[in-house]
Amino acid sequence: MGTVYQRVLLKLSGEALMGDLNYGIDPIVVEQIAQQLADLIADGVEVAVVVGGGNIFRGVKGAAAGMDRATADYIGMIATVMNAMTLQDSLERMGIPTRVQTAIAMQEVAEPYIRRRAIRHLEKKRVVIFGAGSGNPFFTTDTTAALRAAEINAEVIFKATKVDGIYDSDPHLNPNAKRFNSLTYGHVLTHDLRVMDSTAIALCKDNNIPIIVFDLSVPGNIRRAVLGENVGTIVGGFCEVS
To answer: What positions does the entry give for ATP binding (predicted)?
Structure first.
């Protein structure tokens, strides 16, 4: 079966790397994610990743505790680089060439983000992991994912979460919550469904980049999404609800 998408961007939250831990990085989970990405490379798919840092430090919480918001956000950006390097290490131990590019200069451990260089890496079937967010405080890694996807001409954003799509209410609290297969950008914005932050959704809408929200914990789900299987909710299609 051929893949539906040839160049994709995967958005990973920092929490996705924790597994069942309360803090930090679970090496087993990272290895599982890396294996799924390795499978995509074997299929000839070009893969970029934006990773968050909430498993180590979250800028919003730091600001709520009294830190200067910009300072807290910069610390959060550094946390994302730690996650990016961890994922890079796991991929390269599997023989997958990988580059980390950061929006804040860290030349000893990563390349600076350069759009043309990132695209060239993708064309050579190297996984490119974008760290340090957009390099600007007050912007989330969700917004970074939308921005980088537009810059590298990604065909889709895969938003890997702990639930299997978008629901009309919290499925953990409401066993009768309804899962949607497809929603428009406008519906997500109007009803504040918090799939990604509103800036990210607006960027995807303006650049016509679909977002597929799915459960990362199911083995093989990333590849199934690339193959076009129904593994979650697509934002950017028709709307199931008025």
So the answer is: 11-14, 54, 58, 161, 167, 170
